Amino acid sequence: MKVGDNLALLTDLYEFTMSAGFQRALDREQRGVFDIFYRQVPDNGSFVIAAGLQQALEEIQNMHFAKEDIAYLRSLNIFDEEFLTYLQNFKNTCDIWAVPEGTPIFPREPLMTIRGPLMEAQLYETFLLNILNHQTLIASKARRITAAAAGLPVMEFGARRAQGPSSALFGARAAIIGGAVATSNVLAGKKFDIPVSGTMAHSWIEAFDSEIDAFNAWADIYPDNCSLLVDTYDILNSGVPNAIKTFQRLKGEGHSSFGIRIDSGDITSLSRQARKMLDEAGFPDAKITISNSLNEEIISSLLHQGAQIDALGVGEELITSSSSPVLSGVYKLAAVERDGELIPKIKLSASRGKLTLPGLKQVYRLYHKGTNEAFADLIALKDERLPIVIHAVTADPMAIKQNKLLNNFEARPLQTEVMNGTKLLTSTPDVFAIQKFSKQQLAELPEATQRRLNPDEFPVYITPQLYALQQAVISQYTENY
Amino acid sequence: MKVGDNLALLTDLYEFTMSAGFQRALDREQRGVFDIFYRQVPDNGSFVIAAGLQQALEEIQNMHFAKEDIAYLRSLNIFDEEFLTYLQNFKNTCDIWAVPEGTPIFPREPLMTIRGPLMEAQLYETFLLNILNHQTLIASKARRITAAAAGLPVMEFGARRAQGPSSALFGARAAIIGGAVATSNVLAGKKFDIPVSGTMAHSWIEAFDSEIDAFNAWADIYPDNCSLLVDTYDILNSGVPNAIKTFQRLKGEGHSSFGIRIDSGDITSLSRQARKMLDEAGFPDAKITISNSLNEEIISSLLHQGAQIDALGVGEELITSSSSPVLSGVYKLAAVERDGELIPKIKLSASRGKLTLPGLKQVYRLYHKGTNEAFADLIALKDERLPIVIHAVTADPMAIKQNKLLNNFEARPLQTEVMNGTKLLTSTPDVFAIQKFSKQQLAELPEATQRRLNPDEFPVYITPQLYALQQAVISQYTENY
Fold first, then answer.
1. What GO CC annotations are associated with the protein (chains A, B) (predicted)?
2. Contact flag B211-A481 (C-beta cutoff 8 Å)
3. Labelling B346: which of A27, A422, B134, B265 has CA 20 to 30 A away?
4. Helix or strand (DSSP H, E) at B58
5. In this structure, are residues B165 and A3 in contact, taking their beta carbons and an 8 Å threshold?
6. Chain B partners of A133 at a C-beta cutoff of 8 Å?
7. Where in chain B is the domain with CATH 3.20.20.70?
8. Is A134's CB within 8 Å of B235's CB?
9. What is the count of residue pairs from A and B with beta carbons less than 8 Å apart?
């Protein structure tokens, strides 16, 4: 009952029926272009932090259908043998472009683009969205939480509340991308080379006859990094005084790395009183870690109130992004290809906001020339050469159409080619290198765009060529159907 | 970059440090009892539907530490060789009791109890909570959604918005336990023998020159189960008329299973108008499936407004329980065992609501004698023989202490022993058998307890013996620490 050693079947049935349908109804080599993008930012933010690319590419490279997978599909009595044979010999032949993990990315911008046979690219929709939606969601939440922590280290402590094992594992990685410094999750530590951390649970304290016995036993075993949970019985009357006794003994034995963790009660007043007690007892360097259902609002409020905190352990609110637990990324056909020519496609809709952008595209971040100050993004057709002056149009179809004269800018493309058939064209950096890259990217955005509450909208434009193409496709459809 | 073939490392670091600590500070055979329970019901419901037991037991049976796991743990420079050797030879020796999957279970009731060596049972905390919290959360959400659907079939369509691959896979299984009839997730279909379903995406329509071309191509390939997505361009002016043309052709060729799917717009009016058009065209049996960000509130409202719906596809709101995405199940020490004697343990807390129940316990559902009408639950010590008349006490420590005279009842235990060492004592029924069991259990509860909004609280009591034990432990702690 494992997820399986590849995600080939972790796919909606209709991807298979469509893929088989494309094989029969169209030329098997009929190609197309799909974009992955999203429309709504979780938590009313203005952008997300892209994450999940590494796993996504590994899954595509590794994708194959085992004999038992084929047998199962055959048993559904939906598919013909030609299609099942195709699956048996499956390997990726698509070209894939994507923005690097850690990139701040705005609504409607293609964070991944897949170009290849329709019947093949269609099969990627479900698991690519599953992976990218999840990890991008958690990286974005971690960015919010670590921003609220204002430089204090945030540790990811959510494994027990994550939505299943892979949510815990890949969520921990995404949390680091978004700014966390460590995880409690040992598997994530091993797989992604992330520092692991943690103290003790209440069960440790309760297993002994008294709190001081439990603390002393711990100190004997882990004298060089003695962090004690002080809220099992009574924080100020028992936990902190007993911790201080333990630290005094350890100090006498030459040890010096001490800390306490508070997991309940009024953190502001408790942490301030605990700080005072520790300082007065001669332990100004003893660290106070807190960890009670924290999120960005609570952290911000605690710091504002003067809580004395050295580190934060954040669990369920981070690992599930519980205030906004869904990133609704979509996988939309942008073009089909016939005889080498791209035929642009869009999804019309009763909801104007769902209008898509046709064609094979690139997204550029625009900087004031000679600076690292980004002031807008621009979505263009991939083969456009950007002129020096652009009469750009707002990308949001819900906004009143506005033209904007862009000039004196430097345009840096965000998507790069990451896979060509079975060939990986990118190597995934260490997860802390991704975090560092992400922080650099964020530093280039206006502060107002990064605000937690009511962020300023960062302008995203499309080129006049892309706008004209979109309008032409709309007219054509509304005449034709 | 897989979750791995077992979850031994998907555990918080502190479980390992505590386990190693128990080995060194206490007798390696020192035993204890842990309970898994929760305090808050998601979505302000009154109970949850237990799920995840099958995966939980498989993980425990399968639990082992590979050489590279041991090497990683050694590299942390925290653990001694005695502990690493213990892990290398790890196998379960605990006794485990649990309520069957599908059981409606109330706050504070132990849904799983683990008795065994502390250093072993401590290692299970994180992954057991991860699995049980997740699957119980989704089964409970599915129960709410399928109840709102009032008998209409609900299909789980959420794979792309699930929080990672295992969330999609096990979430689909949990959705069936909670009442869904099918999933779009092919891997879940294969692994759990669940019917898979689905129609087509907009990309199918867009890949052809016109909607009618796309419909006709589909009908040629899948004539015996022709369900068409009608909202790519304009539902009433294009989608439904084109679908009817397609059905007319198929009908002429002797086919008879038709349907449409609506995925956007005002479902109430669109479905009613579509129904009328289909009926007037001679297709009263054509099914209307809807699928646009549905949840229990929207479904209830649509049905109240007279929307014409034959089936529902529910995605992100089900697979993430997005309105309430965390079940905060906990793993608490209830006793330690010395020389065969149980020493009861509790967690005191500044928050009175977090007070736990000590001892090795059983939970009973109480029925009016001679009926299948449950009227209360009762938590007792496992070795208590329930008398005919019980002066029970309310289990909720936040409630004003109330005594209640219970008599004329039949008490049915909810927990059964499910594992003894490496021996499984239960076989997992087919997932639809679990669903059926769950429905039977629900039928025995008062309707008012199952309401979606403001459900009536179902009474949960503890026996006077358990109450006395809890009070005794409290006094002892408050004197001692």
1. cytosol
2. yes
3. B134
4. helix B53-62
5. yes
6. 160-161
7. 144-319
8. no
9. 363
